[in-house]
Amino acid sequence: MQTVNNVAELRQIIRQWRQAGQSIGFVPTMGNLHAGHIRLVETAKTQADKVVVSIFVNPTQFGPNEDFDSYPRTETQDAEKLAACSADLLFLPGVAEIYPQASQTRVSVAGLSALHCGASRPGHFDGVALVVCKLLNMVQPDLLLLGEKDFQQLTLIRQMVADLNIPVTVRGVATVREADGLAMSSRNGYLNESQRQTAPALYRALISARDTVLAGAADYRAVEEGAKRALQAAGFNVDYFSVCRIADLQSAEPGDAELVVLAAAKLGSTRLIDNVYFCMPSA
């Protein structure tokens, strides 16, 4: 595996691959890699000739009181994991390489950016859209692989790619979970032992809401409120718990066919997100 820190070297290697007629898959990450990230790389290996992985903790997607400074940075261990799963190229830029001067351009996906996580983290998705747009221009891959755990982010990036005619196929990869159902996340390491025991209740609440809707419950808002109460009783501070249409992540109503239940909640200071998606049976 090669490692580069600047765009010029990155593009030189990409150019050589292109000249050889090889396809390129891309997995953008913020590092502190876990089995979910490795699944993305392994999936990319089956669908592209070469795989680029980036590690960049992006400052523009963190709010002023969020965990940018404390976010785990484990580049040495990450590089070992990527080499072990046969990634071809690690792009490991510093902030000055991605943002060489104060950016005057904003990338904002109207509507989607203000919902759910965007409501409680203003500016977050603008930062995500900007850095992903920049990374796609740097790497110019054929295939972009993103985890489904960040379902709103995946939906937003798909919209951005479509709106800007970026020539890349966006593919979501299923969430990788611990044995007890907790979605793997770099932030799970913030949980203390008691919180870690409680955390899987978020996924159980999502499954329960899905099953209630599939069983015929017509009042989706009541389903949401019931789940919030159960999570609060378990010790969560619930940000949102929403039954939504997959297409636009707006609140779903009976008659909508493709649904996703989105949730975000804090245990102590650790913010967890998760989702389940499903199709309603046809009449």
From TrEMBL:
It is found in: Cytoplasm. Keywords: ATP-binding, Cytoplasm, Ligase, Nucleotide-binding, Pantothenate biosynthesis. The active site is at 37 (proton donor). Homodimer. Pathway: Cofactor biosynthesis; (R)-pantothenate biosynthesis; (R)-pantothenate from (R)-pantoate and beta-alanine: step 1/1. Belongs to the pantothenate synthetase family. (R)-pantoate binds at residues 61, 153. ATP binds at residues 30-37, 147-150, 176, 184-187. This is Pantothenate synthetase. It comes from Methylomonas aurea. The keyword Membrane does not apply.
